[in-house]
Write a structure and sequence with these properties.
7 helices; 2 strands
Length: 244
């Protein structure tokens, strides 16, 4: 008697292997994200609570002004992201790792301004809230069977709208518009978290874990989720944070 389902077992084996590869890939992604968050938190705390803060501000006869290092830390993170994103295929894995660590450190230094502007209790409360929301949406994105591609496209359009509105508000300086942007920003990055986790899960199922290319992709995936988290945190802080 002929076997009527010769591919059934083979198909299940492939699915199991894909699931295992996806789990390993996602573990590496989250590891990079947590490493980046830890580095950023350490540098933010160090510069906000020690004499290192003098490297960021000049006190000239009672007039406090940002130093060149302060401006560098505020504007260079975007350059790091662009270099890593567009140079991923040309930069070695070791080079990308160094850039990511440097980016995390510089971003942490820029976050020291936040610790100086907001009370420590509100920063901690918002951080825990952002962590909870991020965790829930990450689990939802990882476990859902629904294809979030179209939903993610809408979130990306919303992100573009936020960037444009934020640039306009730099000139208008409207507090009301700022709050509206922050609420929309929270919604957008909540959605992007689920979308990005699902996208990375699918990427992980299609790569051979351990290759140089997969390591780079895991690092860039960590960067993506790191950006989702810190932007969610920043928008929540603008809404609920208490200034000193």
């Amino acid at each position: 008697m002929e076997n009527q389902n010769p591919d059934y077992t083979y198909q299940n084996v492939i699915q199991i292997e894909d699931a295992d590869a996806s789990r390993k890939f996602m573990a590496s992604v989250f590891l990079w994200m947590f490493v980046a968050l830890g580095i950023s938190a350490a540098f933010a705390y160090a510069f906000a609570n020690t004499s290192l803060i003098t490297l960021l501000f000049d006190n000239n006869n009672g007039v406090v002004r940002p130093t060149g290092l302060a401006y560098l830390c505020m504007f260079s993170p975007l350059a790091f992201v662009l270099i890593m994103s567009f140079g991923m295929n040309r930069i070695s894995y070791a080079g990308l790792s160094i850039l990511f660590i440097l980016y995390s450190a510089v971003t942490g230094i820029s976050f020291s301004f936040i610790l100086l502007a907001y009370t420590a209790s509100s920063v901690l409360g918002v951080f825990l809230t952002a962590s909870l929301i991020f965790g829930v949406m990450a689990v939802a994105g990882y476990t859902t069977k629904t294809d979030l591609t179209k939903f993610g496209s809408l979130m990306i359009m919303g992100l573009i709208g936020i960037v444009i509105a934020s640039l306009i508000n730099m000139f208008l300086r409207s507090d009301s518009l700022g709050y509206i942007i922050s609420y929309i920003g929270v919604a957008v990055f909540v959605g992007l978290t689920a979308y990005d986790v699902q996208k990375l899960k699918n990427i992980g199922a299609g790569v051979q874990y351990g290759e140089a290319s997969s390591k780079k992709m895991a690092l860039m995936g960590g960067l993506t989720l790191y950006l989702d988290f810190i932007n969610l945190f920043l928008f929540l802080l603008r809404i609920f944070g208490r200034r000193r």
